[in-house]
Protein 1
Amino acid sequence: MNTRQIILDTETTGLYPNSGDRMVEFAGLEMTNRRLTHRALHLYIHPGRDIPEDAAAVHGITLADLEAKNAPTFEQVGQQIADFLRGAELIIHNAKFDVGFLDMEFGRMGLPTVEGLGCTVTDTLGMARKMFPGQKASLDALCTRFDIDRSKRVFHGALIDCELLGEVYLAMTRGQYDLMDEYGGYGSEDDAAAKIQRPPSLKVLSAGEAELAEHEAYLDTLDKITAGKCLWRTEAGA
């Protein structure tokens, strides 16, 4: 898997991109091969309008804060955001909201939409609702489900939410990958044996107690994700 992915989140002045609300924060973290690349884009953005108190209570961003930071307008950074996103798979929680604001802001500048930039979108909210029907699917709820520490999330900041969402996404999709996919995708055990030539001098080292405990903890996580259908334990008859 070599797809360039971007974990993305935004904060805004309100809920309605087509009724005058604007973006006040953008964050994106790049990931390839299920690993963060440390390439990121994080921007505070002056909305050119007031920020209602109820919105500021959610994300903690006030107009005074943005003016103190000398935050740019979207028109000043929109091209930078578009170039960062171009051609990537966007991982977003409640994607309709963020894509709606991005498309609105891009449209004001005459830039392409998210789709026009060649991006695809994966909505982790929709994924969670399919995986855990009838249960809470908020980012907080998913962090609790997957034992992800969210103690630093005082407000709904775009950057901290991206960091948490990255961990949630990896936990949600861990069951989609196995060792054969990662190391060549062999079709059968016979094929794998034929491909791997083990030298006679190769030493076999048994796992220690700490490694075995770590492995069991990992399988416990897979069981939680797959509702007790972890293939390793199922095929081993555990």
Protein 2
Amino acid sequence: MVKKGETIDITIDDIKFPNKGIAYIENNKKIIIKNSIPGQKLRVKIKKKKGDKVDAILLEILEKAPNEVDGPCPVFKECGGCSYQNLNYEDQLLLKEKFILDILKDFHLEDIYEGVEGSKKTFEYRNKMEFSFGDEYKDGPLTLGLHKRGSMYDIVNTSVCLLVDNDFRIILTSVLNFASHHNYTYYHKRSHEGFLRHLVVRKGIMTGDILINFVTSSQGQLHEDDLVNSILNLPLLGSIKGIIHTTNESMADIVQSDKSKLLYGQDFIYDKLFDLSFKITPYSFFQTNTIGAMQLYSTVKEFVGTIRHNTIYDLYCGTGTIAQVLSSNADKVIGIEIVEEAVVAARENAKLNKIDNCEFYSGDVLDLLDNIKESPDIIILDPPRDGIHPKAISKIINFQPKAYIYVSCKPTSLARDLPYFLQAGYTVTRLKSVDMFSQTPHVETVALLTIK
């Protein structure tokens, strides 16, 4: 029997979503090691035991898995931004297919599952990155990048990050040099003291528009002109449209605005999905993989079919991207979203695209469904990662449309919500995944549910 603190050698036998390797030991106990893949031989240290599960910390990779490759990013082993650069992309897709089928195994959907559609870009696909200021080790020099794997505090310099294009990397390097030159302190998460917090870069993949948000606390003075000039002189392929300084006093390690000041240009950019344009503000939701979003929305549109419908509901509609993509499929599309800023953006984008049959309402789905009179032919569900609130599901089901299309960014939430629809007489007739997040365990899954 293994003991807490003990060091042992194991082989990873299986893997569980999102990135938990499993090794089986005596009496079928499971040792769980994050960021490992089947076939690896590892030296681990037992961290804690609970029932038949044992958590362990990776100390050393003794032998690679048979299908393991060297991750192309120089900081892959240290950075927490990616999990699976050490697998060829074909193996990543097989792994994601396994995740989906394992999680949904109780529904017996293997025969209708259409697999995972791979991303057209497996690197340099992200249109937004939130970089954090900090140090790579305690009291080390200032750095800027992503969290070190398994750490809440240490930051890895990701000036070589391969999930974004070279403009992001150039901007990160320039901003870090600027901050180091001025001897700024970074904001310490434990003491809540310090100045620099985050650098958020957004880029229109189809337009080249770039928006930069420099996030600090109020515990310092920003050299605004130096920052703007250092960025505007960079040799970028895209075009800087705006630079913002945001003051954030929240103790939580999140990007939010207590006060924002526009230092240059405008506080928005544009990007395109198909022939539609979308205005993107600093805090508006827009899928982080633009090309992948078009693949995802093409799947949704395919599931909707070619027959024109009277009314489509787009619940949890965000900035109304799906609603506008489906505007040609119905006489009316009604979108509901709890974030008021997103609804304002949705209305503005519909006007920009000269779409007049989309209506957007701000509020909780649970409350607003009581006030909408039109009966939907199809309901699109694209909920947050945690899925649909159980109280909202009953109201959604009461509409009894011909079909639901559930767009899930977290398969465990889909598995939790599906029984409600099945009990109401619906059946899953199509199921397909779309990979928008290569090199990571995450995958979008689209389910078409029709009434029996």
Protein 3
Amino acid sequence: MPGPSLVWFRDDLRLADNPALRAAIHRGEPIIGLYVLDEESRGIRPLGGAAKWWLHHSLASLGERISERGSILVLRRGPAAAVVRDIAAATGAGAVFWNRRYGGAEREVDTEIKTVLRHDGLEVDSFAASLLFEPWTVQTGAGTPYSVFTPFWRACQSMPAPRAPLPEPREVPGPSTPPASDDFDAWQLLPTEPDWAEGLRDTWEPGEPAARARLRAFLEDDLGAYDRARDEPAAGVTSGLSPRLRWGELSPHQVWHETVAHRGSGAHAASAQRFLSELGWREFAAYTLFSAPDLATKNWRSEFDAFPWPRLNRSHLTAWQRGRTGVPLVDAGMRELWHTGVMHNRVRMVVGSFLVKNLLIDWRHGEQWFWDTLVDADAASNPFNWQWVAGSGADAAPYFRIFNPELQAKKFDPHGEYVKRWAPEYSAGEDPQPIVDLGETRRAALDAYDAVKRSR
């Protein structure tokens, strides 16, 4: 049927390599962009504070870019099934396009909307945009999901190469009478009382143009050292792309193909291969979420339901959250997180291990804190990585792997540069006592994990 095309943006806040937008342009009718802030549909997890900050600025950037090309980004708040149907009816839309999501609640919402809109006579289609490989296309020889990363990634690499990115449209033709949009400021995505986002503003510029500039800078300046220095938190050779991918300001296809183009040979090629495997780890997290939609709340390995968590020590949890544990590398990491909304990956493993295996605090408390404070908080990667550290997840770290934060600091921050930047009191001669004894708590953790083994 004729009528404008509705493009429902979600975790794909970009114009380039956006298959849903490309389908709408090919259809040839006016285009209306739509973003729905859905905190009401059953099972949809509300965003954390740092993620809301990023979303505000990324949406503002996307709205400006769509407007420059002739169309509009409509903002609405409410349950997505009702909002999308209402907008489609009010505008006389003939088609609705979106890019797929892979969480269980999100898939249920999308299936409901697709069914209802098709019943209403609209053309509806969804597209692969946020993953290199659709989860259902990668299976073991027995037809089951992979539970270990290496064979999963090997299977992915044996498949046809990821498709080439789609070009950015020069024009996005808009409707003659656009629908009303919510008052953006009324969404209150930015913190005000207090305004704790100064560090985020100092660190980031959300939006597609900045994301593409960051990718180019990383490939040109840092990729060559990635394999050698990626574990050194003071080295500054991480890509900085995790929030860009989480919000879809870049697609993994763009990152993949531009990295391959910069791959070169020798050490540079090894660094590129290592970096591409990090994209693979992101894929594996989403792949696991697809088959285990309760990943943020339930142990992937059911035997860990028997883990004897002690009663929550709230003072220990608060000390960890605030970076006041008396352990330099842990405190530096937690303060970096609070200031910038991210944390170096090596340090994430250390602070996660310290919470779960030295403080014996359930990994779900850490996952929730990261969900609220990370700008790249992702429904797949965040719980997946926490379960990896805890030992309860897919391809998890062995239960006996307890990261010693002192040894990790000596190995990866030997000159104390990272700790000096984020927890300078330790470099100034202050020596706060750790809130727990690392050796004693390590032994207690191993005893608890042995209890899980005996319960099988």
Protein 4
Amino acid sequence: MTGEWTVPRVKSGIPGFDELVNGGFPKGTTVLVTGPTGSGKTTFAVQFVYKGVELYDEPGVIVTLEERAVDLRREMRAFGWDIEKYEKEGKIAIIDGVSAVVGLPSEEQYVLEGNLNTEDFLRYIYRVVKAIDAKRLVIDSIPSIAFRLKKEEEIREVLLQLNTILLEMGVTSILTTEAPEPSRGKISRYGIEEYIARGVVLLDFIEREVELKRYLLIRKMRETKHSMKKYPFEIMSDGLVVYPSGEIY
């Protein structure tokens, strides 16, 4: 007798979201979170790691390539998230990928040097993931990888390498990227990120009664059933919340 295969799930830690993906992200998948500036991509990604530790005891790594680790910690304290507490416990690691690029000294435990090539960049992330036995990984953001490695013209090759090593590590990963004009179908900076990732979540704005409202759309998620509707979400005092019953058509 053959039993039905059940896909192992990783809870997102985002209220309302897991209902839209049949109980959580497929374990070990790579998800692209895309959207215009200010849509909540970094909050979504960091919440995934922070709540992974707080609620499910799953260590996580955050690679921050757009702002210094110290600034990221400060911003996330606004949600009541004490990232530093879990860093001291060895359950969260923040890799500072900004300081060296802008020529600032860094006192962080994990720092990317300013002149790493693609292979060294990926190898360093791999080492940190293994060092804390991470189950979750965030890289914020893909355009900053291209800028940092001066490989923008070879971004496809870099992303293919990145996706391969993420799958090899077995972590469940979120990558963020910019969506310049999602209303016109351009949902990523380079137009190829969505083809490499196994899942794509779009965060965007829609105008309702002379006011901008946030919405979320799952464009793709392999290995699971998922909704294809637009759902409202808000960034509250304690993080991001999705409203599965409040569909935007």
